[in-house]
Design goal:
metal ion binding; 218 residues; binds zinc ion; 8 helices; 33% helix; binds D-xylitol-5-phosphate
Length: 218
């Protein structure tokens, strides 16, 4: 089923619970939580303390997208503070299989993320141990960037690999997902749609979440 994973990176952090409630009212079913360390990506965002507060403010699954070096060291903290899904960047993990197993051993759903320049074929040997694969449709680090059209082919290839091997991971996309791009990613095979700016950017998250989902499910 197509789901909206609204990215709180574009929300008002001083009124986070209100913004989450609005996106939820608009039909969002997953909270996307972007963690940036200023090392793997050139930006710094939020981490376990904010997650801890957010956990008390929503019953939705919280999907933590770790854009950090040395993810292994922080996985217990994400588990302890209420994360449900944790995805790690292929480019940042030296022992990816170990990291994914570590996430699962802490009771969370593991996912792997690839940057626009990383081929889906590099995921061949972990596709059977992940719950979701996130295909970045922008370079990670900032909200509000333009969708990179070349990523559509990657989504299609990934969907094909899943079918050929009869696997059941879900395909997620992140970056530049709005009313002009959402139909193309769904057509290519994405079902978990991360969107920040297009949900929170205009101060009408209920309506904008709803219309994005309507387009995606059309
Ligand atoms: C980018 C983050 C995204 C970001 C998407 O590094 O991973 O989740 O919030 O923002 P929009 O929807 O504005 O492109
Ligand atoms: Zn993200």
């Amino acid at each position: 089923m197509t789901e909206l994973c609204f990215s709180i990176l574009a929300a008002d952090f001083a009124h986070l619970a209100d913004d989450v409630a609005k996106a939820t009212e608009g039909g969002g079913t997953v909270v996307h939580f972007d963690v940036m360390d200023g090392v793997f990506v050139p930006n710094i965002s939020i981490g376990p303390p904010v997650l801890n507060s957010l956990r008390k403010a929503t019953a939705l699954p919280i999907d933590c997208h770790l854009m950090i070096a040395n993810a292994d060291a922080y996985i217990p903290a994400f588990a302890d503070n209420g994360a449900d899904w944790v995805s790690v960047q292929w480019e940042a993990c030296r022992h990816l299989n170990r990291t994914l197993e570590l996430i699962r051993s802490h009771g969370m759903k593991p996912g792997v993320v690839i940057n626009p320049a990383t081929p889906v074929e590099f995921l061949t040997d972990v596709l059977d141990i992940v719950d979701h694969v996130l295909v970045m449709t922008v370079n990670p680090g900032f909200g509000g960037q333009a969708f990179i059209p070349g990523t559509l082919k990657k989504i299609e290839r990934l969907a094909q690999m899943r079918q050929e091997r009869d696997l059941d991971f879900r395909i997620q996309v992140d970056g530049g997902i709005d009313h002009t791009t959402v139909e193309s990613v769904v057509k290519a095979g994405a079902e978990l749609l991360v969107a920040g700016t297009s949900v929170f950017g205009r101060g009408q998250a209920v309506e904008d979440a709803r219309s994005l989902l309507d387009l995606a499910r059309k």
